[in-house]
Amino acid sequence: MTNSAETIMIIGAGIAGIHAAEALRNEEYEGRIVLIDRDTELPYDRPPLSKEFMLGESTETDIALHTQENLEELQIDLKLGVEIVLIDSEKQSAVLSDGETINWDKLLLTTGSSLRRLPIQGSDLEGVHYLKTLSDAKAIRGNLDDIQQIAIVGAGFIGAELASSFKKLGKEVTLLERAPLPLAHILGDEMGEYFLQMHQAEGVEAIMEDTVVQFNGETQVEEVLTEKGKTIPCQAVIVGVGVIPNTALLDKELQIDRGYIVNEFGETSLPNVYAAGDCAMWPFLGNNIHIEHWDHAINHGKCVAKNMLGGEQTSYSTVPYFWSDQYDYRLQYFGHTKNWETTVLRGNVEDKEFSYFYLNKSNVIEAALLVNQPKNALAVRRLINQQKPVVPELLPNTDIKLKECMYVEVD
């Protein structure tokens, strides 16, 4: 039984924050829950913004996570359109931009991340967009009827998903990326080349190893100029060049390395202060990592919320996972690795259905990419969780079940 006079304050009403608040109520927390966000929209799901919502296949109602009535039933005190002016960690209080002061017993930071901006000439022209919020998506979608040519700066997952969505809408799409291959820093050169060819086969003009230096136009963007002298005509630009975790709150008091550093329970370096989701760096397989995806935000938010209630602590050890829908491809990535030793392909890339494994020097699977193979998801997650060696020579053989590819010691 919790103290009904207690207050837990959650800063950030995104995926991690709203699921943390729900988890507190599901765990029968009876105290006050204050959920604060500078956005003015009720909590909503972000992944559809670049796909179903952009295509007009889903509405604001479809992507809403809760109605006002739901939140009232859960007794979640949601404060929208306000920011935190000051947090006093010793007095355990916070001052809001509307002048209100809230005293808290425990604080959860789910502040998410902010988009990196391109500080170049023409950035203020009409038609230059970034996609992070529902209002961003509505601004882009509201002008699509008057747009035929779209330039996308950045070939990460958001940029790639938008390229797919815009092609489905019959637009001419140019994808610009300063790296030699899209997504190679995550998936490696072989898969980077695969995804480059995938987009080119769908009619996307892909310009690699070039940098945007200027947007041209009088009041409306009309063209993009690159460092290598290319000029790309367009009526809209979408910039997706990465994010920066929001760590301004308590940044002088908390340990930060890209995100707020937390332990396996979600605790920061300050007592009674926790962090979860995009803004946190958390331990996974011996390293602190930072994940910016939907599945992680939900699971981390729930786990940390439960730990805030005291009692038996639960280590957060969920295998990182994200997915991306592009054209007729369902891409699923499990695990986390940047320094794999070898890769193994299982299946045939020409069939548009395969698995691609990333192994360390001990032949342990650290990560895996599944392309149109959701049936393998559970087995792959288990293999990564077990952290035991596999026999690389067996992995490519689709007649052998994945669980039978484990290395077995013989006495």
From TrEMBL:
Domain FAD/NAD(P)-binding stretches: 8-301
Ranges of residues in domain Reductase C-terminal: 321-405
Cofactor(s) recorded in Swiss-Prot or TrEMBL: FAD
Classification via Gene3D superfamilies: 3.30.390.30, FAD/NAD(P)-binding domain (3.50.50.60)
Entry annotated with the keyword Repeat: no
Gene Ontology cellular component annotations, sorted alphabetically: cytoplasm
Matches recorded under InterPro entries: FAD-oxidoreductase/Apoptosis, FAD/NAD-bd_sf, FAD/NAD-binding_dom, FAD/NAD-linked_Rdtase_dimer_sf, Reductase_C
Keywords noted in UniProt: FAD, Flavoprotein, Oxidoreductase
One Gene Ontology molecular-function label: oxidoreductase activity, acting on NAD(P)H
Source species, domain of life: Bacteria
Protein name: Rhodocoxin reductase
Source organism per UniProt: Oceanobacillus oncorhynchi
Gene, per the UniProt record: thcD
